[in-house]
Amino acid sequence: MAREEREIKIRSFTYRDEVENASGKMVTVIKQARMGDVVDLPERAITRGEELDAFVTEEDRAETTPDEEALAVSEMDEDQLTNWVSEATIPQVLNAANDDPDMAVALLEAEKAATGGDPRQGLVEGLGRIAGSDE
Questions:
Q1: Which residues are CB-neighbours of 56 under 8 A, at least 6 positions away?
Q2: Could you give the CA distance from residue 27 to residue 73 in angstroms, rounded to a whole number?
């Protein structure tokens, strides 16, 4: 069965996957991915996700340029930034950091606030690199 990695665009995407249990038997489990997560999906989950427009597309990525995004984000207050981050994809947030360590720290704090202290791993890693830390 074919598998592909996809970035989740919607707030939450639930799908079925086959995994090997402790005894070596393949079992079906229900998994959930959150907005911004990049997950390896089975073919039937990809089909369902495409029907729901659940994945980030090249068109989505091209909607804003990094400079436009960074300018708009740099003018936001803390609440606006938290709200924006809660709806933005990982690439959008990383673009908005614009290689600015201070902005990366602010975006990571906004992500933590938006997710109740459970930030998306891709943002922790990407913003940590920009900020010069391994948060």
A1: 6, 7, 8, 9, 89, 91
A2: 44
Distance of CA 55 to CAs 18, 35, 91, 99, Å?
20, 9, 13, 25
What's the whole-model pTM score? 0.51
| Type of residue found at 102 | D
Looking at residue 134, what is its pLDDT?
A: 47
In the chain, where does DSSP find H-type helix?
A: 43-51, 58-62, 66-74, 78-87, 90-97, 101-114, 121-131
Q: What is the separation, in whole angstroms, between the first and last Cα of the chain?
A: 36
**Look-up of token digits 């340029």:** 65
Quick: pLDDT tens for 28-66.
Answer: 999 999 888 899 999 999 999 999 999 988 887 766 544
